[in-house]
Amino acid sequence: MNTSTKSKGKVYLVGAGPGDLGLVTLRAKECIEGADAIVYDHLANPEMLSWARDDSEIIYAGKEAGEPSLSQEEINALLIEKARAGKDVVRLKGGDPFVFGRGAEEAKAIVDAGIEFEIVPGITSAIAGPAYAGIPVTHRAENSHVTFFTGHEYPAKTESAIDYAALAKLGGTQVMLMGVERLGAVTREMLKQGVREDLPVALIRWATTGRQETLTGTIQDIAQRATAGGFKAPAVAVFGNVVSLRENLNWYENQALSGKRIVVTRTRKQASALSNKLRALGAQVVELPTIRIEPPTNLREFAKLVQDAHIYDWIVFTSANGVEAFFEMFFKLYNDAREIGAARIAVIGPATAQRVKDFHLHVDLQPEEFVAEAVVKEFRKQGGIENLRILVVRAEKARDVLPKELSALGAIVDEAFAYRTVAETRDTGARRQLLEEGADLITFTSSSTVENFLALGLPWPKGMQVASIGPITSKTARDHGLKVDIEAGRHDIDGLVEAIRNFFSGKNAENS
Ligand code: SAH
């Protein structure tokens, strides 16, 4: 979307889905990717903001129950102001924008201001919440209609618009959004209108996220149970016989990492590989990128070494980022892959090997253990490298074990600084999320993630444990006074995920 050529932008009222990142529509993702400005709510999962362009303006509009950051009028005015400034604005709202979310009010204000708009429906928590608790909102043996109602009505209304007598008579499945704190009054009213006392009820809070919790009971006791258990918003309540189907259908809360909140500190671009694997095991992931990859300080010097790549006997890549930077430069300089000459290729770990293979090149040497020392050992095993020319492609300010030891073995080593790791300064709400909600575990996938996380100076959430990808990262963590609770046996993402899984499954076994 191009701001320079437009006098007026468009507003997209976009449903952000109930929380799980996988439940966002393709259209929503497209809108976020193209937006010049994004105004998002408390219930919209902030992780989808990582799809935004780097220059997109990101504004938190709050709206937690009871404490609005911006009033509705201010939000409307903001959307109009941004669109008038020629920006395409995405208004991200939890669930579906037209289901109890004031989406209609915002749309009306936008229309009145003569601004173009589009509605992107989302998956509503009213259906997805029960589904993630193993409760189908319909079942042909149990009901033939579903009702959605709100437990928290428009404050200006003097009388309740909800006809509890009619609700009681109607039966079927009833889903209540908002107002868990008013559950006592709502259930009393329903009972008064003759709903049977043992009608099953479920409350699902933070549905479809790693924080999901479900409380079940009957219409008689659910309010009291919710109070006793400190069961707070946001939650959906389901009333009806379908609730009992959960007994067999509860799937989401029974996974290996269900209920665990895990922090991922890798770069925004790289985070998803780890995050998705953790999510697939039921974890709630907080992506808090602490580092970002930037071009090297001396790009010209790097270009010169890449240009001469064919004169080397070996090119050693120490990271996937290095491979990417190298070939980006290589194909700027050459149009022909054969220009790499007869250089053989060594890598430290499997992710790096995979990046090399993505360029259709063979990896000639890869050690069993994924640390620099193992590469040196492997070279030695292969009969030495005396007088061979080796190009080590690496990050600035990384460890220099590799160049040093290779030189010590008699090789002629050049170092190509392919990129620089710098602190990530952009925060899309993850830091606030970590402070407010804490976490069970933080993952470190390199020494720089440790250093840059600590440099943020955030208070350490109570009880947050540490998982590290391998001995070098663990040492950095320990040097900074952290206790490392989990260290991957295999020093890559799959190894890390496996170690985390084993750690928590051991824990669960202990507790049971
Ligand atoms: N438009 C939203 C609803 C907004 S009203 C939608 O379609 O889902 C806000 C209410 O939605 C909350 O009070 C709660 O009842 C419900 N809600 C939204 N997200 C939820 C979630 N992840 N888990 C449980 N309830 C949720």
Strand proportion? 15-25%
| Attached small molecules | S-adenosyl-L-homocysteine
Shape: elongated
**Proportion of helical residues:** 25-40%
Round the Cα radius of gyration to an integer and report it. 27 Å
Instruction: Describe the main β-sheet briefly.
Output: 5 strands, parallel
Report the total helices.
18
Q: The CATH topology of the largest domain is what?
A: Rossmann fold
Q: How many distinct folded domains?
A: 4
Which spans have pLDDT < 50 for at least 5 consecutive residues? Answer: 508-512
Overall residue-averaged pLDDT value: 91
Distance between the termini: 54 Å
Under CATH at level 1, the class of the largest domain stands as Alpha Beta
Q: What's the total count of β strands?
A: 20
Strand order of the largest sheet: 3-2-4-1-5
| Class inferred from helices and paired strands | alpha/beta
Tell me what the CATH architecture of the largest domain is: 3-Layer(aba) Sandwich
